[in-house]
Amino acid sequence: MFFSKIQVNKLQTAIGLAVAATLAPNVNAQQPVNIPGINSPVTAASEHAQVTPAPAAAPQQQSQPQAQRQVQVSRENGDLPPVPASVMSSPAPSRRQNQAVETRQDVIVSNGTNTLIPISRGQINRIVTPFETPNIQTVSTAEISTRDNVVYVTTQDEQPVTMFITPEDDEGLAVSLTLLPQSIPPIQANLMFSQAVTGTTGAASAPRSLAYSGQARRWEQSQPYMESLRGIMRELALGNLPRGYSLAELQSGDAIPDCAQQDLSYDFNNVQYILGHEFRVFIIAAENISAQPTEVLHASCTHPNRAGVAVWPYEILEPGEKSEIFVITRVSQQQAQTSARPSLLN
Q1: How far, rounded to the nearest angstrom, does the alpha carbon of residue 60 sit from its chain's CA centroid?
Q2: Which of 118, 194, 247, 261 could form a disulfide with 300 if both were Cys (CB 3.0 to 4.6 A apart)?
């Protein structure tokens, strides 16, 4: 049987396509396959790809780059290929948030009683005293210095630091402290007397807190009269004590405010008494005992030396609701010029 030249070329082309289809599954993706009789490269695929042969009698010209066809390769198990680490974007490091640490301490002290206060080891600590010019007595090797009414303490040891703090003009009054070094941030301790201090000389009933309220006096006199009243009310409403003020206990003979208003009940068994230099503050709780809202009237509380009245947090109370009433009084400046002599005839 004789074949023409055209038939022979077609037969070779068909044989080449059959061989390419057989070798395609065993060839990696994107790898060129050279097939005899076909000049253009093809890309292997798992599926049958259609290949168009180049003309056999193409003229000999300088070959130009041809774009290869991209065929998607799918895996039989359906798993995705691993992603290089360079492609993954590393997460941004979390920013450390600043956390505020409360280091202010309000320490209640009294004459003749030792008070323990934790302090920072290796850092400077600040102790605010109620004395205008404090004197320090200690045997500790810690670094101790004073400035105005503030004592600064720094120690590197773990041993406690003990000291006595006395006012400059009276050795009969002393604050005894034991400072315990710990691994904590630097602290500020505000020393406040728990009750009115009685002096070692003069009348036993005369309160000596006036002699040791230099910080309160400077704070009160550093601003106008009305600003002092507003500052006292603002600090008390925030739960703080004004600068230099201290808590005290009511003494026998102290005149408390007289409060009376319909539909309100006043708790005089738990009255807070705050001492300053020129002002005293009485804090009384009031409760609405009626079945309707009631407004707390400032004029409902009176005192011979009343300087101001404030209500916190609500001036209009719902049934069963409570508020605090701040009654600020002035310190009486009247002093007895003479003292009475008891008669021997009586």
Answers
A1: 83
A2: 261
